Structures are given as structure tokens and as C-alpha cells.
Amino acid sequence: MKLTLRVWRQKNADADGAMSTYEVDGISRDMSFLEMLDTLNEELILKGDDPVAFDHDCREGICGACSLVINGDAHGPERTTTCQLHMRSFQDGDTIDIEPWRASAFPVVKDLVVDRSAFDRIIQAGGYITAPTGAAPEAHAAPVPKPDADFAFEHAECIGCGACVAACPNGAAMLFTSAKVNHLGVLPQGAPERETRVLDMVAQMDDEGFGGCTLAGECATACPKGIPLFSITSMNKEWLRATRKVAKR
Length: 249
Hints:
Strand content: 5-15%
């Protein structure tokens, strides 16, 4: 395959960025999208040019690091992570636009790399869970109803990639925050801090400068792990319940 790549290049956070055009040839349809970028970078290095900076780690769809906007879509045309997107999803001769996440809370570090430490701070705001330390507890000591276990697991699948923010027209982080709130909220281990957790995490999310949620639904559509939109409404109910309890004290 021969492709034309229009890639966002930005030297650092303070520099102005612009799209640069590159031609790549000999791309296998079985390559992953990141392997295609590796091929581009090899050619740039051989020419003495600066390679394109992009985030990656596991390349197995687990870590969420490979965050790119491809032809206007978070992670590209398939509902998967960029590292699991293969070049068979494109046609020979295609022009592909490659950009970083676009959100004020995710400032560009260089080229396609953005700073997503805002997500880390939201998680940190949730604090700890009350759990005994020492020997492993008996597996059946804290029974969890299967619907609750399924609900928690569904939300625990969030990998924090930020596709929800990139896809949202408001740049909101509600789907990410709700996934982190909900997967602990229904479990016995997370119950003691249930109220303070949702209040603190939502407050931190607002402090980070993410946009407001209007339930447009683009976040759930773009999520590679299928976190459902009702996660947000579930968190909103938790937040309202916690707010009312605090107001009565």
C-alpha cells in the first residue's frame, strides 16, 4: 500500500503546530497502525529528520497509551485502540490525517503526545478503599451479588485512554470519571468511601478544566472498551445522593 500521511507536528508545548505531509510506500495490510508509523519514523531517521513522537506501550490494547485522532475519529475507523487498528481498514492511495487528542485538559507535549496526567489526578482524588492488610482474606468472606460484580467489572475495563474526551464535542471527562467511580462504588471494599469518592473525583474533574457533559453520547461510541453511557447517569445519581447527605449534616 502507498499512503499519504498528514501528521500533526509540534516541537513542544509552547510552539505552534501544523500538519506535515509524508508519503509512505510498501505498507502491508497486516501491519498495525503503530507499525506503519514505525515505518515512517525509520524513513525519517534515515533522512536525518526528527521522527514523529507518539505514545505507545503494550501494543496489546490494554494500557491505553496509543491515543491518536485518525481522520477525525478517536483511535480511527474501528472501535478499538490505535495499536489494534490494522492497515486493512484503509485503502491503497488513501490520505490519512493523524492528530493528537484535542482538549484543553490534555496539553500537547510534542507532536502526537499529550499530557493526560489530569486523569491520574482524578483517580488520586478518589483516595483509598478500606481493606484489611496481611494474609489474603477468604475468597467467600465478602460475598458480592453477581449483578454487582458484573457492573463493577464492566466499568473496571476502562483503560484511561482518553478517547471519550477526544470524541466529546465538549471535551468532557464524565465517562472516564464515572467508570472509576462506579467500579468501586458497588463493591463492599469501596462502600465506606462511596460518598466522599464521588464528590472528590467530580470536583477534581471540574478543576482540571474538562468541559461539561451534555450526554451527546460520542464518548460511549468511541470507547474501545465499550463503557456504556448509562455509567454517567449512574454516577450523577451517586453524586446527587452524596451531595444531599452532606447538605443535611
